[in-house]
What does this fold into?
Amino acid sequence: MNYKISIVGTRETIIGFKALGLEPVYVSEPSEAVESLYSLKRERVEFEGGSRNKYAIVFIMEDLMSEITDDDYKKLTADPLPAIIPLPSHLGSSGYGLKKLKTIVEKAVGMDILS
Amino acid sequence: MAILNVNPTRMAMLGLKRKIKSAKRGHKLLKDKQDGLMQKFMEIIREAKRIREEVEERLGAAFKNFIRAGSIMEEEFLEGALLFSTAKTELSVKTKNVMSVRIPQFKLKQSGEAINYGYLQTSGELDIALQSFQDVFPLLIELAEIEKSAEALADELEKTRRRVNALEYRMIPDLQDTIKFISMKLGEMERGAVINTMIVKAKIEAQMA
It folds into this structure.
């Protein structure tokens, strides 16, 4: 079973990933990004006896994740697939990814043990 | 501590005793599950942090290269050059079951060349940028796998911890209290019955005399 990988970001940043065979989704506003995440998550591929997600991994630029609400985030990441992974953009790391890891640890252990 | 709303009868007590037995067994099982999950989580999370930091560093550099390439070249040429990429990425996904948490395992198969354009109208920076993207890409997949796993494990850990606590601090003590209450009540009733018969007996004996 082969899945696809998608990347969400502004045009100039992610066009390079197109050359690697990823499917780019161009957005410019954080609000658009949330919508496109939902639609990417909804896309399914039919095969005999059922259907499955089309995309296994959706990369998204960190700066677009800033406006996503906790509620949306929970809904988007509830299922095993796709994995939604924020990546630092060309603007440099905003610390979003590490912050996310921190919340994961806090949720699991009860306190932050990483730092 | 609360006493459950049951009739203080022997039947109810037997039922509660059965319940407490299964609650204790469930508690032990869940506790073991929690320990197992925690062990796995600890293994994963440090790795996740390491990969995340590495990705941030390398991807930042790759983006810088790419932006530089974009600034040197005309946009149409850049887009045209990227259009001819023959690179294909195929991702196969398996799910692994760790303590009833399904965690994904990605396997990447790359074929073709990303750099597949004429060198005349493109800049050297683009080659470097694409190469660095290609180098960092497997790491991104690894990051995706490990972060998703960590997330799933954290979710399950939280749920399990709640259940363990609910059993340990709520359900089991409540059951114990209720059982104690019923056995006291039954003992009280028994004593009451004995006293009653003693009184009746004394009354009958007084009449006879």
